[in-house]
Amino acid sequence: METYLTEEERLEALQRWWKENRQSLVLGVLLGVAIIIGWNMWQANVRSQNEQASNLYLQMLKASETKQTESAINLGERVVTTYPSTAYADYARLLLAKLRVESGDLSAAKAVLEEMLAKTKDDNIKHIARLRLGQVMLASGETDQALSMLEPLTVEQMGKFAGLYHELKGDLYAASNRPDQARAAYQAAKAFGEISPLLELKLDNLPTESKPSGA
Predict the structure, then answer these.
(1) Above pLDDT 90, what percent of the chain?
(2) Which helix (H) or strand (E) holds 120?
């Protein structure tokens, strides 16, 4: 390390160092300030968007509760279009699909849920959307297509929704006149914790289990 003999030499060395490095130091400080300001502005914008999306979604809920279906649908579409990156876009899509089903427009409900499956980043919401899509497809008679969507799913992929998936598969098998597979799916749903009087009724309403030929 260089040793200076006098205070004057130390001052001259400091002045040389400052002259050589001041531009990069100033730029570094300015860049740091810009990053902090940009981060704060981004956070403020996210908060603002969430608040505005929340207000619109609450209006949608109120319109839905008071049976103002058309108004609720319009509000929901505004949430999805204007604030697509917020969680409220997912909530709005779920309610939009429900409203479409209630109004008898299964095709529109299916489109909303398919879009939701493609765009949501929330795994739980994705499961709910897939289950509701399967129910809409069941209601519209698209049982084979719904089964094609559900059958490849593993237990690990189903996660905590496994019981609901198996019950839905049972409904689809029953609608396809495949009672043995429906029974197996319902029993699997029970094994995963879906125990309810309705599920028992579905099992009881299935035809008697077929026996192997020659038995």
Answers:
(1) 67
(2) none
Contact 99, 105 (CB under 8 A): no
All domains of the chain, ordered by start, with CATH? 12-204 (1.25.40.10)
pLDDT digits (tens, 9 = 90+) for 114-135: 999 998 989 999 999 999 999 9
> pTM of the prediction?
0.74
Helix axes 179-191, 197-204, angle to 10 degrees: 160
Q: Once rounded to an integer, what is the mean pLDDT over residues 190-204?
A: 93
- For 203, residues 6+ apart whose C-beta sits below 8 A from its C-beta are 183, 186, 187
Distances (CA, A) of 68 to 59, 71, 106, 165: 11, 6, 19, 32
- Of 138, 135, 94, 131, the C-alpha closest to 116 is 94
Listed residue (107, 116, 176) closest to 147, CA to CA: 176
| pLDDT score recorded for residue 101 | 94
CA distance 57 to 78: 9
Q: Is 125 helix (H, G, I), strand (E, B) or coil?
A: helix
